[in-house]
Amino acid sequence: MDFTKLYLIIVSAIAFGYVLASILVETKLVNWIGLKTLKLSKFGIHPLLTNVPVIYLVSPRAAHITASNLLKEGKIEPIDLYLAILASNFPMRLMFLYRYYFPVLVPLIGVIAVYYGLLRLAFDVVVLIIVSIIGKIRYRNLKFDYPEYSSICLEFSLKTLKEGFIKGLKEAFSFILKFTPLFFLIVFLIKAGFMEKFTKMLKPYLGTFGFNSLEITYITTAAVSPPVAYGLIKIMIEKNHPVTHILGTMAVGNAMFSLIRSWWAYLLPYYLGLYPISVINVLLLLQAGLPIVYNFTVGIILVKFF
């Protein structure tokens, strides 16, 4: 495996994604899309929490602070919070897909990135439908006061494009500083045989579901660093792996990452200090547990039966 080439491909693709994302922000295209998704907050959300999905697009922590204050004041119940946060996942997923996932992974692995993005989006759509049904039943006797919608003027100019490009490069540079040591750590673990040993430990379990050695290597690598693992998708494509196997491998890899790292590194910091332990446990179950079960289930089905 040419790790130098792999490193350059990953860094180039992700730098492109950061630049494109910054341009979308500077030209206010992100705000325009956020305004369109605001209508989704009308479905199945407590009237006092209808702004949470919109705030979630800008800052998840700010959204949780808003909801936490209402919970502490006794104006909402925990279930109202759960419904609002679950409903926020759909617009958040849309933003993640067009701001980071597609710009970064489409240049790297092509149309497979689109297939997998839609596979992940399907889960959030189903959750949104369920939340809407529960919310409509729960709030059928409440009156909703919808906010007034205002237009957003897009700002496509040489100045905004330049500012977006420069900010994107700065963010990409910051990412590279964090990513490079981790990449070399993964390379060291692979070269030293640690990943191979880990793979052999998991192979009796994952192998029974139809995953081969390369796919198991992807899963174990994704558990540590998905950006590093994405490079292995290129190898699978070159080796003509079935698309269903690649999608299933990516799904299980995502589940492993969430199980080992994501829930405590990303979700828990939003919740600590804001909610009671009982609420935190439920939020982790909903925001981490359900996606983990979904990804594992879908991944195993795609690899074993397709």
From TrEMBL:
Signal sequence extent: none
Keywords of this entry: Membrane, Transmembrane, Transmembrane helix
InterPro entries: MJ0871-like (IPR038880)
Domain of life: Bacteria
Membrane-spanning intervals of the chain: 6-25, 108-134, 175-194, 214-233, 245-266, 278-303
Protein name from the UniProt record: Nucleoside recognition domain protein
